[in-house]
Write a structure and sequence with these properties.
29% helix; 503 residues; 15% strand; alpha+beta; binds NADPH dihydro-nicotinamide-adenine-dinucleotide phosphate
């Protein structure tokens, strides 16, 4: 085999004669600085780790393809969605959110579900989660929220006080908290969960007509979750169980797949819809916007090298292609900045040149130049500015996105959409969950919330009560709280409740 004949070299290709004995002064003497092979080896080793992602640090990924199965050309001009039967290469990364890179897969946490489509019009990243909603609706709260899910600054321990203090002071979180503490909060594997855009995005067609859309990637393997008892055993036995499952399943040729379904809302409908179409703490009930089948996502190839393909993969919600745009969702608006900014920090300004991130089916013809790790030809002798009269790449007006209207006063506006944060979690508890789901939900909450101070328990349980009186009552009973006190707190405004439960 050719591999057997390969000679070990330094990073710069110089053959190495001995890789087991450092150059020393005499057989028992100290190592000499002139052993440049050792210096190179240790120096590189010292720098092997790149900054861990602040969120979504633990992940697993795989390659595959997306195939169009439904005609959506009346809604979007995106070329990769233009013909039934068309296939586009993808790379997908699944992850947990709050834990460090070495944390266990079977934690109660949302799961990231990020898809990179290598389209002929550039890379399109759909950076979703396994939950259709989120904890907060404004990006300004995100760093604080994440701090509360991480470790206490003094003890370096996960802290139920921090966790529930923030959530109970942020009532818009109640919908996502209800999903997270249902058994869906710990999917059995990455294959047994759905992916959602969560955000509303914009699609526009060749005529310039605009639609608001939500993506649902429904697992073809069926939803399967772990109970908290099963998760406890799994964490202890195999902290990497979901990573292992994904790799081994693909390795034996049992390729996981998801069906892409879209909810599509006509542009004008968002103005008078009963729920705020751009609020990520809300779903669009299926009865209002029935999902339509659009395609199939299949994962059929494992990475060859975890660091190169998974750790260095960089997804960015602002990687959009013609036919797909953003909505005014305030969480999405923040992510448009934050992801690219993070990747520049972790991987450098030329992270788009790393093979897994490269627009492999569409050439990069930009005027961006130089900086660290510019490892391609850097545009060669071509012009590095626009406009130029030297035949450099030129913008094409056919790709200008349709305009959209804005109104109102610019400022820090308190949220004012006339709907309430408790309707949808209440519906989920009452109408969607079974008795089994409700029992587990209440048990999951009680075993976590019991670690917080009593005044925080009361404040949070009042929010469950506001979603549904039975829901709040059962959590209160599980915690040994006075149900009438919880009901009284639930009847207050949030401001009064915060005052009544202050330290
Ligand atoms: P539907 O009855 O049409 O939809 C309910 C959906 O809830 C199901 O399709 C399923 O979504 C999801 N679901 C089922 N069991 C659970 C569970 N144990 N935990 C969390 N989600 C579950 O009703 P609506 O569309 O009116 O929604 C009612 C509530 O269902 C919403 O308030 C929301 O909390 C929840 N939900 C709604 C979704 C939506 O997009 N409309 C998506 C997910 C949840 P799926 O098919 O995606 O698995």
């Amino acid at each position: 085999m050719a591999d057997e004949k390969k000679v070990l070299t330094t990073a710069f290709g110089v053959p190495v004669g001995d890789d087991q004995n450092s150059i020393t002064a005499g057989s028992r003497g100290p190592t000499l600085l002139q052993d440049v092979h050792v210096l190179e080896k240790l120096g590189h080793f010292d720098r092997e780790r790149i900054p861990e992602r602040v969120v979504h640090a633990k992940g697993a990924g795989a390659h595959g393809y997306f195939e169009v199965t439904g005609d959506v050309t009346m809604y979007t001009r995106a070329k990769f969605l233009s013909v039934v039967g068309k296939k586009t290469e993808v790379f997908v990364r699944f992850s947990t959110v709050g834990g460090e890179k070495g944390s266990a897969d079977a934690e109660r946490d949302p799961r990231g579900f990020a898809v990179k489509f290598y389209t002929e019009e550039g890379n399109y990243d759909l950076v979703g989660n396994n939950t259709p909603v989120f904890f907060i609706r404004d990006t300004i709260k995100f760093p604080d929220f994440i701090h509360t899910q991480k470790r206490n600054p003094a003890t370096n321990l996960k802290d139920p006080d921090m966790f529930w203090d923030f959530l109970s002071l942020t009532p818009e979180s109640i919908h996502q908290v209800t999903v997270l503490f249902s058994d869906r909060g710990i999917p059995a594997t990455y294959r047994n969960m759905n992916g959602y855009s969560s955000h509303t995005y914009k699609w526009y067609n060749n005529k310039g007509e605009v639609f608001w859309v939500k993506y649902h990637l429904k697992t073809d393997q069926g939803i399967r979750n772990l109970t908290r008892e099963e998760a406890e055993v799994t964490r202890a036995k195999d902290p990497d169980h979901a990573t292992r499952d994904l790799y081994e399943t693909i390795e034996r040729g049992d390729y996981p797949s998801w069906t892409l379904e879209m909810q599509i809302m006509p542009y004008a409908r968002a103005k008078e819809y009963r729920f705020d179409a751009f609020d990520i703490t809300k779903v669009w009930p299926h009865s209002d916007f029935p999902p339509i089948k659009v395609g199939k996502l299949v994962l059929d190839r494992n990475p060859q090298n975890y660091f190169a393909e998974v750790e260095q993969s960089a997804f960015n919600p602002s990687n959009l292609v013609p036919g797909i745009g953003v909505s005014p969702d305030k969480m999405l608006q923040g992510r448009l900045f934050s992801y690219h900014d993070t990747h520049i920090h972790r991987l450098g300004p030329n992270y788009h040149l790393i093979p897994v991130n490269r627009p492999r089916n569409s050439p990069e013809n930009s005027y961006q130049r130089d900086s660290f790790m510019r490892v391609d030809g850097n545009g060669g002798p071509g012009p590095n500015y626009w406009p130029n009269s030297l035949g450099g790449p030129a913008p094409d007006p056919q790709y200008v996105e349709p305009m959209f209207e804005l109104e109102g006063m610019a400022g820090r506006q308190p949220y004012s959409y006339p709907n309430d944060d408790f309707i949808q979690p209440g519906n989920l508890y009452r109408n969607v969950m079974t008795d089994y789901d409700r029992n587990n939900l209440v048990g999951n909450i009680v075993t976590h919330l019991c670690g917080a101070q009593k005044r925080i328990q009361l404040r949070q349980t009042a929010l469950f009560y506001k979603a549904d009186a039975e829901y709040g009552t059962r959590v209160a009973q599980g915690l040994g709280l006075d149900v009438s006190e919880v009901a009284r707190l639930a009847g207050m405004t949030q401001e009064e409740r915060v005052k009544a439960t202050a330290k």
